[in-house]
């Protein structure tokens, strides 16, 4: 079925450290894997995404890696800052051309100053 | 562009009442979605639409109905509200048939059923 597992559910790091969040999925036909950040009381915002034809993508302090064989992908945040504190959601497209995105359960990241 | 506009922002319903959550987008997106987010939880897909006249069920469709008579509007209907439907509801849209694009979310509707 359509399943996205996300770990950990909470993550606390010291400012300047790195944070890694991992997601696994079940459909080998999925080919689009975005990450969304949601600050308290706000709507989710896309921060980075990756398609299945690449293994890694970087955008300044954030990067996403994809292992299609193992069906997992990860978000990496380096040099964390207090403003990185938020809930992060991974998502996977299930449904081919319908572009139906199924979300993971979220990771609450707390960056301690 | 206003993006994705949701109304109302807050609503309290009594058990058994009905209501419609409105969603409109002005980006000419084909794809529109309704998600619900329970406190401290992730986003669950309720219904989605790939174009006017076409809708399909998501992960948690029970207790809801949708329609898509125009490209711009995608209302969500709750017929007999239940406490389990207390949640924050997000409408979202994206574009380009056959390709994947980022989701544009509305600001959300906070619904309480008492």
List keywords for this structure.
heterodimer, A: 113 residues, mainly beta, six-stranded mixed sheet, globular, B: 114 residues, four-stranded antiparallel sheet, 11 strands
Please outline the helices and strands:
The complex is a heterodimer of chains A (113) and B (114).
Chain A: E1 4-7, E2 10-14, E3 19-25, E4 32-38, E5 45-51, E6 56-59, E7 62-67, E8 72-77, E9 86-94, E10 100-103, E11 107-112
Parallel strand pairs in A: 2-11
Antiparallel strand pairs in A: 1-3, 3-8, 4-5, 4-9, 6-7, 7-8, 9-10, 9-11
Chain B: E1 4-7, E2 10-13, E3 19-25, E4 31-37, E5 43-51, E6 54-57, E7 64-66, E8 76-78, E9 87-94, E10 104-105, E11 109-113
Parallel strand pairs in B: 2-11
Antiparallel strand pairs in B: 1-3, 3-8, 4-5, 4-9, 5-6, 7-8, 9-10, 9-11
Question: Would you kindly provide a written description of the structure presented here, covering whatever features stand out?
Answer:
The complex is a heterodimer of chains A (113) and B (114). Chain A is mainly β and 113 residues long. Chain A is built from no helices and eleven strands. In chain A, strands 2, 4, 5, 9, 10 and 11 form a six-stranded mixed β-sheet that branches. In chain A, strands 1-3-8-7-6 form a five-stranded antiparallel β-sheet, with no helix packed on it. The N and C termini of chain A lie far apart (41 Å). The mean pLDDT of chain A is 92. Chain B starts with a strand and ends with a strand. In chain B, a hairpin with a 2-residue loop joins strand 5 (43-51) and strand 6 (54-57). By secondary structure, chain B is mostly beta strands. Helix content of chain B is 0%, strand content 49%. At the A-B interface, strand 4, strand 5 and strand 10 of A face strand 4 and strand 5 of B.
